[in-house]
Design a protein that fits this description.
The complex is a heterodimer.
Chain A: E1 2-9, E2 14-19, H1 25-40, E3 49-52, E4 55-62, E5 65-71, H2 77-95, H3 100-105, H4 107-117, E6 118-119, E7 122-123, H5 128-143
Helix pairs in contact in A: 4-5
Chain B: H1 4-18, H2 23-39, H3 60-76, H4 78-84, H5 88-100, E1 108-109, E2 112-113, H6 115-129, H7 133-149, H8 155-170, H9 175-189, H10 194-207, H11 212-216, H12 219-224, H13 231-244, H14 250-263, H15 266-283, H16 287-301, H17 309-319, H18 324-337, H19 342-360, H20 374-386, H21 392-404, H22 412-421, H23 428-442, H24 448-451, E3 478-483, E4 486-494, E5 501-510, E6 516-524, E7 530-533, E8 549-556, E9 565-573, E10 576-584
Classes of the chains: A alpha+beta, B alpha+beta.
Protein name (chain A): AP complex subunit sigma
Pfam families (chain A): Clat_adaptor_s
Keywords (chain A): Coated pit, Cytoplasmic vesicle, Golgi apparatus, Membrane, Protein transport, Transport
């Protein structure tokens, strides 16, 4: 299973963090700091996998954002790259040509999409269409709000 | 995110939802069940009934999460594993449909139908087929099909192939399939994508033990990966290369590995050097080749060589008797070039100390002997003593080497002078050595040749390398009891590694004409000590000193107090039982200090 996913910019600013294992805030901060440093130090030509503690880290850079996942020993690194790519595609479809700003200003939507795609560190829906449909339905629910009381 | 208490409480709800008609909920319920099982494995049984129809799902989302659930259950419980083995045909069918089905836009990724599901099914098959012939046979065909038909132009295809290879290697597949898998890995190695190369090297490392010959075929590709730019790939390639070295390819492989050692990053050099030494020791085609290889490593990566290699190398050199002259000559020449690499300097000074006479007499057969005088050799060794580059350990080596030359060279006076200078050195280790050597010259000159003579060939099992001149303090033995013909002697050793434990061996002898049977030795010590009595060699002490009964006593003496003991002896002699008590107070001070 995936233990966590981090999205951060080239300057090391964290844009999104999803943890699938219970850790204290302090530990999360420590891990984030360490990993961001390690991944940013890698040269562009290097391969997308590295070993860190007892986990495998799979990362990929899309424009100005690094998508970084930590998977366990038995997980398939190459399919994790596909999972990252699928998530990017979902964001792209939803926001229409997504860029970092979209994620910064609509981070709660980014989390919703991630939560419809991955659950408990595993993929729950392998069809792009179904994930996006679920998000659409959630959006509809949000829009139907009781009208504010007029004074 | 739920804690184990939460999981226990909600497990029932999750189980119900697993059976609901809404597929959206079912897939989420399945993953919740996975989490519950991870947190509270005992609840696994609860979900068993719900899993009955999981694989007949049409919805890929639910199917995917169901496979994850089944995988989790099988990984955690051998009973579940046995229970779910019967699903293998169903899984094979689902996988087949995925591969054979036409284009399905919903699940397609670069022309492959639902790769996520394919990978998960392959993983579950791996777990089910492991150690089970029938299941493995049932999945043989589909694995071969996936392996040959999957598109490899994109990462997706390779991800599936990777999982397939892992599965083939883990189950009881037939050899043809295994060769197919290794060939896929070989193809991966030639892929432009470095991620794929990395994954291939990692997998090959796992399989090299079991399918050694098949991996050997790809040796040249692996060796090429040593020149890759990526650090992780280089490391994997290096590990794999060492695993592939054998008697046949040692010369070629070593050439490549030494070239790698020259040019690799410092973080690799220590591991690479150790690996080279190990491989050279196992497969060296000739002693000369071995020495040359060692020399090459010492001169190119000398400062990265691990400290424990120095004694090992020295032992190796000692045992290659016919190469001594050649070795010392090469080492001497290396010293003339460069004295900064400490392991090299240490090995070299040790050798010069041992074989300096061969060096000066120009006896080398393997190559052109060099002309060097005793003074030149002493210059070099003294240079090491004063150089800033030498560590204290190195200085110790060179001082001892100089001393040894006093029996091999004729310029004894010069050596005497050097040794006496260091008698007042600030470095305590050097000072101690110099003072001892000085004493050798003055009071024990008659012992000097014997002490400093050539090292004999050492046994491999010796854990320390050559010992320098060592003073052994034998603790004298003592007679603890001597009455009525029964004599008990104590002999002592210090137990390593704990110096607070004294190991005493008792030797009981009987000088009477009748043997002593049912002999029991007991001992008691004061409160601050602890005693452990091991079993005796026998209960019969033969008559007329014809044999000895021995027994080992271990005494823990943490406060280093004077050792005292009360002993009780019981035995049968000439038909009657004898018992005696005694105090033992005459322990030598060295036994407890």
């Amino acid at each position: 299973m995936m233990q966590f996913m981090l999205l951060f910019s080239r300057q090391g600013k964290l844009r999104l963090q999803k943890w699938y294992v219970p850790l204290s805030d302090k530990e999360k901060k420590k891990i984030t700091r360490e990993l961001v440093q390690t991944v940013l130090a890698r040269k562009p030509k290097m391969c997308s996998f590295l070993e860190w503690r007892d986990l495998k880290i799979v990362y990929k850079r899309y424009a100005s954002l690094y998508f970084c996942c930590a998977i366990e020993d038995q997980d398939n690194e190459l399919i994790t790259l596909e999972i990252i790519h699928r998530y990017v595609e979902l964001l792209d479809k939803y926001f229409g040509s997504v860029c970092e700003l979209d994620i910064i200003f609509n981070f709660e939507k980014a989390y919703f999409i991630l939560d419809e795609f991955l659950l408990g560190g595993e993929a729950q829906e392998t069809s792009k269409k179904n994930v996006l449909k679920a998000i659409e339905q959630a959006d509809l629910l949000q829009e139907v709000r009781p009208a504010p009381l007029k004074p | 995110m739920g804690s184990s208490e939460m999981c226990r409480d909600l497990a029932g709800e999750v189980e119900k939802l697993l059976k609901t008609s809404n597929s959206y909920l079912r897939k989420k319920a399945a993953l919740c069940a996975v989490h519950v099982i991870r947190k509270v494995p005992e609840l696994m049984e609860m979900f068993l009934p719900a899993t009955k129809n999981l694989l007949s799902e049409k919805n890929h989302g639910v199917l995917h999460t169901s496979v994850v659930l089944l995988t989790e259950m099988c990984e955690r419980s051998p009973d579940m594993l046995a229970h779910f083995r019967k699903l293998v045909p169903q899984l094979v069918r689902i996988l087949k449909n995925l591969i054979m089905s036409g284009y399905s836009p919903e699940h397609d990724v670069s022309g492959i139908s639902d790769p996520f599901l394919q990978v998960r099914i392959l993983r579950l098959l791996r777990i089910l087929g492991k150690n089970d012939d029938d299941s493995s046979e049932a999945m043989n065909d589909i694995l071969a099909q996936v392996a040959t038909n999957t598109e490899t132009s994109k990462n997706v295809g390779n991800a599936i192939l990777y999982e397939t290879v892992l599965t083939i290697m883990d189950i009881k597949s037939e050899s043809g399939l295994r060769v197919l898998a290794i060939n896929i890995l070989g193809r991966f190695l030639l892929n432009n994508d470095k991620n794929i190369r990395y994954v291939a090297l990692t997998s090959l490392l796992k399989t090299v033990q079991t399918d050694h010959n098949a991996v050997q075929r790809h040796r040249s590709t692996i060796v090429d990966c040593l020149k890759d730019l990526d650090v992780s790939i280089k490391r994997r390639a290096m590990e794999l290369s060492f695993a592939l070295v054998n008697g046949n390819n040692i010369r070629g492989m070593m050439k490549e590995l030494l070239y790698f050692l020259d040019s690799c990053d410092p973080e690799f050099k220590a591991d690479c050097a150790s690996g080279v030494f190990l491989a050279a020791e196992k497969y060296a085609p000739s002693k000369r080749w071995h020495i040359d290889t060692i020399m090459r490593v010492l001169t190119t990566a000398g400062s990265y060589v691990r400290d424990d290699s120095v004694p090992n190398l020295i032992q190796l050199i000692t045992n290659s008797v016919e190469m001594h002259a050649y070795t010392v000559q090469r080492l001497y020449k290396a010293l003339l070039d460069d004295i900064s690499q400490q392991p090299l300097v240490q090995v070299a000074s040790w050798c010069i100390g041992e074989y300096g006479d061969l060096l000066v007499s120009g006896q080398c057969e393997e190559e052109e002997p060099i002309q060097v005088t005793e003074d030149e050799v002493l210059d070099v060794l003294e240079g090491l003593l004063v150089s800033n580059l030498s560590t204290p350990v190195t200085r110790g080596y060179s001082l001892t080497a100089i001393m040894k030359l006093s029996t091999r060279f004729s310029s004894v006076n010069r050596i005497k002078k050097v040794v006496s200078i260091y008698g007042s050195s600030i470095d305590v280790e050097l000072q101690q050595r110099a003072v001892e050597y000085n004493a050798l010259f003055k009071k024990y000159d008659h012992m000097r040749p014997a002490l400093l003579e050539r090292m004999p060939i050492m046994e491999k099992t010796a854990s320390n390398g050559p010992t320098e001149i060592v003073q052994t303090n034998g603790i004298p033995s003592m007679t603890a009891y001597n009455k009525n013909g029964l004599k008990i002697d104590f002999t002592f050793e210090r137990a390593n590694p704990n110096p607070n434990i004294a190991v005493i061996t008792i030797h009981a002898t009987n000088s009477t004409e009748a043997e002593m049977t049912d002999f029991v030795f007991q001992a008691a010590v004061p409160k601050t000590f602890q005693l452990q009595l091991l079993s005796p060699s026998s209960n019969v002490v033969p008559a007329l000193n014809q044999g000895t009964v021995t027994q080992v006593i271990r005494v823990l003496n943490p406060q280093k107090q004077q050792l005292r003991m009360r002993i009780k002896l019981t035995y049968t002699h000439k038909g009657s039982a004898v018992q005696d008590l005694a105090e033992v107070n005459n322990f030598p001070p060295q036994s407890w200090q």
